[in-house]
Structures are given as C-alpha cells and as structure tokens.
Write a structure and sequence with these properties.
5-stranded antiparallel β-sheet, single chain, 4-stranded antiparallel β-sheet
Length: 358
C-alpha cells in the first residue's frame, strides 16, 4: 500500500487522464475516505497544480489549465510512446525552430524513467533502423505556427511576411484554411486575399504572422491537404506535360502521386472496348523532364505522350540505352560461356595434338 505521498501522485495521475472524477470514485481508487481525498486535493493546489472543484450531482474534481506545466504522470507505455514520437518527429523534420526542444524533452523523460523501462527503450532504439535519411529541412518558428493555427481555427485573416523560392519578399493577407505536414515540411494553405486565389506557403519561409481584425467564411469542398496537393500538381513550372495512360488510378498514383500529377477520365475513341481499355489523362508541370522516362518505364502500362515532344525524345533515348545495355549483357554472357567451355575442355589446338599422338 503506497504512503500519502504516493497516493497524492496517484491522484494527480488520475486527474491528468481527463474528465471530472467524483470524490467517491477517487476515494475508491485510492483506498481512502472522501475527506482524505479533499486533503490530497488541497496538497496539489498548494503545489500550484490547477485542480478545479465541480459542483452538482455529477461534480467532483478535474484538472484545469494552469500558469505552468504541473508534474506530468505517464505510464510506462505512454512514456515509450512519447519518446518514440519525439524520435520519429525529429527524424522526419517535423519540429519547430528550436529543434533542440525535442532533444531536451526526450532527455528529460529518459532521465526519470524507471530502470527497467529505460533498458527496454535503449534496447528498442539500438535495434531500430530507418530506410530513409534523416530530415534536414528548415523548420518553422513555433510562435508563427501557433498564430496561424489560431487564425485557422477562428477563421481570422492573418498578415504574413513571406520569402519565395527565388528570394522575393512580400507581405500578404491570407485566409488560412489549414496547416498541412507533407514530405517533412509544414505548409499553410488558404486564399491569398490580394489575388483572390488559393495558395500554399511553406511555414519556414514566413518571417512574421499577425492576426488581423475581422473574419471569413471557411470554404466548402476539398480538405486543406487535397487543396495543397492539387496546388502542387498545377504550380507554374518550366514544362507542361500531358499524357494518356492505360491503367487504374491506383497503378498510376503509385508512381505519380496527387502532389505531382492530376488525373481525369479520358474519353475512349470510337470502337474502343471501354470495358477492357480504360485510359486516364495525366497532366503535370515540372521544372525538368529527365526523371519522367524512368517513371513511365516503371509504370509498365501503355502510354501516349501528347506533349511536349522533348519528353518523347527522352523516352526513345532511354529505350535505346536499355536495348543497348541488354545487348551488351547478352554478348558478355556468351563470351563468358565460351570462355568457361574452353577452360573445361582445353583449347582446340591441344585437343588436336592429343588426338594425333594417339
């Protein structure tokens, strides 16, 4: 049976689980009387833990937000989940400007873990491997991230100072629809009030964010992440590519995701069997074309290049190289086979000499 101090900490852990706990429930869990529960609550309040008393038939006690973080009680599994979440988030690049915050938080939790849990965690981290490289992305400022999140929640316009990929700086008024984490970066998507169009901005390129008076009505339709991916696929780049690919959406999306290309049904030509031949029109905008031929080859589906002609030339050149490599490999295999046969049977001249002596 734990002593009074242990029971006070258990009370804190019960309250941190959320919701309102009745005195009777807490007394039963702690194995004490109701007046003892009230005394323990007073001790927590003396420690500046913000415990609220809730009156009424279903009243009791609950934990309220306080001016500082109270002692945090975590179960063994919760502690493991938090540490692993910090490791994964840091590796994926989804941290704020103070990247060391996740490292120090992880270190603090690991210092107070019971020895048997710390050993389990060290064993797991020692055995854990990642197939991708650690994220090395620029990260957003935590204050800017929280300011924009508040503007999203309350549909308030926000003024941002932004630097684009070419280094141009501008100040914009944004009606932010949502914040999206994608590919190790943080983005905010919304309507740029100055041009009246949906835009997506990288949060790490926002130098300042300030909430403005007024409000706006959140739009119906696609979710913020869908709007962002659609914006990526239609962004202004050097080349506009249009293809027709025979296959399913899933087959094409496995190689050309929504953030890269847009898909739509392609009307089948007259006489084509619609039940067996399904073609999709694929459109994308890219800065370079050289990566597309290998992608189209990996699709292993019939395709037609509508534009640009330069992409068609690159695909033909790749096909010629692959054919050349295959022919060279076949020739090399034949040479190796002949060489092996010669080593096993001896040279032709040696065989003829042996026959003559016999």
């Amino acid at each position: 049976m734990p002593g009074p101090t242990g029971r006070v900490l258990t009370l804190l852990e019960l309250l941190q689980a959320g919701g309102t706990r009745t005195v009777a429930e807490l007394a039963d869990r702690l194995g004490v009387e109701g007046r003892t529960v009230r005394r323990y609550v007073d001790q927590l309040i003396d420690l500046d833990v913000p415990v609220e008393s809730v009156r009424g038939r279903y009243g009791g006690y609950r934990l309220a937000p306080g001016c500082r973080l109270p002692p945090l009680m975590l179960s063994d599994d919760e502690a493991l989940a938090v540490v692993l979440g910090l490791v994964a988030g840091r590796r994926a690049g989804l941290t704020t400007t103070e990247r060391t915050a996740s490292e120090t938080a992880s270190a603090k939790i690991r210092r107070v873990l019971p020895k048997h849990i710390a050993r389990r965690l060290d064993t797991l981290l020692g055995a854990l491997a990642f197939t991708d490289q650690p994220g090395e992305f620029d990260t957003p400022d935590a204050g800017i991230l929280l300011t924009i999140a508040d503007a999203v929640r309350h549909c308030r316009p926000v003024s941002i100072r932004y630097t684009d990929r070419d280094g141009r700086r501008s100040e914009r008024t944004l009606h932010a629809y949502g914040i999206v984490a994608h590919g190790g970066r943080w983005y905010v998507t919304g309507k740029d009030a100055q041009i009246g169009k949906d835009r997506t901005f990288r949060l790490d390129r926002i130098a300042d964010a300030r909430t403005l008076p007024g409000s706006f009505e959140a739009p119906m339709g696609p979710a913020p992440e869908q709007r962002m991916l659609s914006g990526f696929a239609t962004a202004e780049y050097r080349h506009e590519v249009t293809l027709r690919i025979q296959g399913t959406v899933e087959q094409i999306r496995a190689h050309l995701p929504a953030g890269v290309a847009s898909l739509e049904e392609h009307e089948s030509p007259a006489g084509e069997d619609c039940a067996t031949e399904r073609w999709l029109r694929v459109e994308l905008r890219v800065e370079r074309l050289d990566w597309l031929p290998p992608v189209l080859a990996s699709l292993d589906r019939p395709f037609v290049i509508e534009r640009p002609d330069e992409l068609r030339d690159l695909v033909i050149a790749l096909a010629d190289r692959l054919t050349s490599y295959a022919a060279e490999s076949d020739s090399e295999a034949n040479r190796c086979a002949r060489s092996s046969l010669t080593r096993q049977t001896g040279s032709p001249s040696s065989n003829s000499r042996a026959t003559h002596r016999t």
